[in-house]
Design goal:
Largest sheet: none
Order of helices and strands: HHHHHHHH
Distance between the termini: 38 Å
Strand content: under 5%
Radius of gyration: 18 Å
Number of strands: 0
Helix content: 40-55%
Number of helices: 8
Shape: elongated
Length: about 200
């Protein structure tokens, strides 16, 4: 468990103080393999129990990747998690409840929210491609040698859901191992031992 994950737990635990009662399970059996996924499942279930929508729960999880909750406005939060659009609800939670001024973090939060929405609504990593978070647009006449399922992909040293993150992880699906610290995509072509074609 990394230090950022431990720091993430503190605001999540503070979040639970906003609601009274016990958890309820959602309508989908989720395969939670990591502590982060288990914590996210607890939050997901709690938002749904409080009358929130799946989109609202995903938006809250997206904001939980980096938020520091102020513990003062539970009524507003309960209203915000009833949103039905993941991206908009993520932004509303960031601006109206968290009151974050850093607008540059919004796309990242929305990406996290969409990941959690897909993960929680498709049953997590069931080994059948559910919870991938990516729906590839495959050109007509082309096929995939292996299905894409990003739910088991590691963020490691590459930024989550960026091109290098996906390429590094997807290559592992085919038994190809790239270096973990090769930089941005443009830097890969300059790495010793690799040929650009």
């Amino acid at each position: 468990v990394s230090l950022p994950f431990l720091l993430l737990l503190l605001p999540i635990l503070a979040f639970f103080s906003l609601f009274v009662g016990s958890n309820s399970s959602s309508d989908t059996d989720i395969n939670t393999n990591t502590p982060q996924q288990q914590t996210a499942k607890v939050i997901w279930d709690r938002v749904l129990k409080e009358g929130g929508t799946k989109e609202g729960a995903a938006a809250l999880l997206g904001n939980n990747q980096m938020f520091e909750q102020d513990g003062t406005d539970s009524t507003l939060l309960k209203k915000l998690v009833k949103g039905t659009n993941v991206k908009q609800t993520t932004e509303d939670i960031m601006r109206k409840w968290e009151r974050a001024g850093a607008v540059d973090s919004l796309p990242k939060r929305q990406g996290f929210a969409e990941y959690w929405y897909t993960f929680m609504t498709t049953g997590g990593d069931s080994g059948t491609g559910g919870g991938s978070g990516i729906t590839p647009d495959i050109p007509s006449g082309w096929t995939l040698d292996k299905p894409i399922n990003t739910s088991g992909y590691l963020a490691t040293s590459y930024e989550y859901k960026q091109c290098t993150w996906f390429t590094w992880n997807r290559a592992k699906d085919f038994g190809i191992t790239f270096g973990m610290y090769m930089g941005n995509g443009a830097d890969w072509q300059k790495q010793a031992g690799y040929t650009v074609t």
